[in-house]
Specification:
Structural class: mainly alpha
Distance between the termini: 80 Å
Mean pLDDT: 85
Number of helices: 6
Radius of gyration: 30 Å
Low-confidence stretches: none
Strand content: under 5%
Length: 95
Amino acid sequence: VGIVAKLDPARAVADTVASRARMGIGAREEFELQQPLFRLHTYTEEQVFSDPRLRVELALREAGLHKTLYAREVLSKLPPPKLPRRDMESTAFKM
């Protein structure tokens, strides 16, 4: 079995991946690899607590009434801060 590698003196003195990383070359690529796979599209704490339904639910919970029929009735009558779009209404379960 003989050596099949070609003679390449430039490769022998070239930088390695580790030496380039130490100098900061290619650091951007590694930074991008450490980013989360997906962006989170979520609500802020202020947006969540601006909903009056949440504040009423928290008050009912602190009073120990959150599992009662009264709580269900009160929460069902509170409208959302922004009404849902008409095209979001489902007719799948309506008779």
